[in-house]
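Recap for those who missed Tuesday's class. We walked through two folding examples back to back. For each one, the amino acid string is listed first and its predicted C-alpha cells come directly after. Nothing is annotated here on purpose, so try labeling regions yourself before you check the end of the notes.
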Amino acid sequence: MKSIILASTSEYRQALLKKLGLPFLAVAPNIDETPILQESAQALVMRLSHEKANALTKQYPQHLIIGSDQVCVIDNNIVGKPHTFENAFKQLKAASGQKVTFYTGLCLIDSATNQFNVQCEPFDVYFRPLTDEEIANYLNKDEPYQCAGSFKSEGLGVSLFDKLSGRDPNTLIGLPTILLLEMLSQHGVNPLLD
C-alpha cells in the first residue's frame, strides 16, 4: 500500500482520518487560498483541494495525497473562518433561521502517476432562530473562531441547529470520509482489509 499524505495541518481533518485506522503523515501544503473573482463556492473548494494535494507531489513522489477545502455559503455569500468574536457573531446572526450550505472539496492524487480525482460534497445545515444572547453564550463556550460558519458541529454547535441534511456528517467537520474511502478504494486501499 502506498503511504498516505494529508495535505493539511487541521486537527479536525487529522482526527477524522485517524478514525479510519490508516497510517498517514499530515503536511502543510502552503498555498495561496485567495478566491478568484466570480469563482463559485464549488469551483473554489475543488480548485483549492487539488492545489493543496498537488503542492506536495514533488516532495512525496510515491504517495497518495489527500487535499480538502471547505467553505460555508450564507445567503449566496461565501463565508470563511471568522477569527474573532465579532465576525463569528455576525455569521451566526446571518445564519439564524436560515439554511446554510457547506461545500467541501476533496482531492486524491497518486503522485507516482499524477492521476487525480477531485469532487465537491455539499452538506446543508438548517439553523433554528437564535437570540443574540444564545449566539454570544455559544461563542464564549465553544470559541469556534477557526471554523467556517462559526460553529463546531462536534461540540455545542449542534444546539444551534434545527436539522442537518447530507450524505456524510463528517463533511461538516471538513473531510467527507465516505467519499474519501470511495476514492482510496480505487487505489486498492480498504481499511477493512489492510
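Example two. Treat it independently of the first, because the proteins are unrelated.
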Amino acid sequence: MEVGIIGSGIIGLASALALAEAGYSVKVVARELPGDESQNWASPWAGAGILPYPEGKGHDLQINTFKYYWALAHRDPTSGVQVVDVTEYFDDREDDSAIWYKRLVPKYHVLDAKELPEKAKLGVRYQSMTVNPAVFLPWIQSILIDKGVRFYRAEVKSIDEARSTLKTQIIVNASGLGALDIAADKAVVPVRGQTLHVKSNSHEIVMFQGSHYTYQIPRMYSGGVVIGGVSQEGSRDQKADAVTRADIIQRFKLLTRGRSDYSDPQNHIQDIVAFRPARKGGYRLEREGSVIHAYGFNTLGYTYSYGVGLRVKELVDLILGRSKQPTSRL
C-alpha cells in the first residue's frame, strides 16, 4: 500500500522510516529536502538535543524516540547522533516531582544546592543524546532511499495537490508551518529562534528553563556547540540580531559562572536564525479521514520524532483496517 508524506523535516522523515520499516511503499514531497540550507524550514537548524519536557504531553512518543536515538548512537555514529551528559537547571520549580523522565534516562540524579547557578531552584543531571542535523538528515534520507522511499521536490499548497503529485490516497501532513495553509489551521504560528554556533570541545548539554531559556548543545563532528536562545512567537525576521547575540553570550556566561565565555568573535562559527513550527494549543497528531496530521511540535521535533512516526504508522494501519482504534496515551 502506498502512503504519501508532505514534508521532509524530522517529523516527515521519521514517519517515512516507521512506515517503510512496516512494509509500506512511501513517497515524500517537499519544498526543501535534506541538505538544503534554506531558512524556510527548521529541521537543519535545530539544536536537536533529545530532551524530554517536564510538562509535555505524549510521554510514550518521547520514550519511543529516546529509545530509538539511544540505540542509534551506540549502533552507528556516522548518523551524527551521540550520547552526552545533560545538566538542566530550573527556577520555576522547587523539586523534580514533575520530571517524569527521571525513570527513563540513565544516571539521573538531583544536584546539591551548592552546584546550582544564581537563582536556580533545582538542578538535575543525566545522560541523553544530541543530533547533528547536517549529518543526520542526509543520513536518514539515504537509509530511506535504500528502503525504497521516493522523494519529490515540489511545493504543494493543499492535500488534494499532494494526492495529485504523489498519486496516493493516504496522506501524512507533516508540513510544519505549511499546515497554516495546507490544513487551514490558524493555530499554526512561527516561533523565531536565534542561536550561535561557536567553537568548543564541550560534550555536555547545559539547559536553563523558567524565567529565561538558555542552553548549550554539542554538535557532533562540527568542532563546536550551539548556544541559545530565544523564542519569539510570530516573528519572521531572518536576520541575526547583534543585541540578541550578545544577550545569549552573557546569559550563558552567567549560567556557567564564567567557566564558558563565548564572547571572542574569533570563536564564532555561525549565527543561526530559524522558525520553529509551533501550534497554539499544542501539536496536532490525529487522523482526519484518509489524512494523518502530524505537525506543531515547536522546539521538540527531534524529541518527539520517532515516536510520532510510530503513531503515524498505527493510524495508517487503522485506515486500512489492520488494527483497532488506538487508545489515547496523552
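Answers for example two:
The first strand starts at residue 2 and ends at 6.
The chain has one domain: 2-320.
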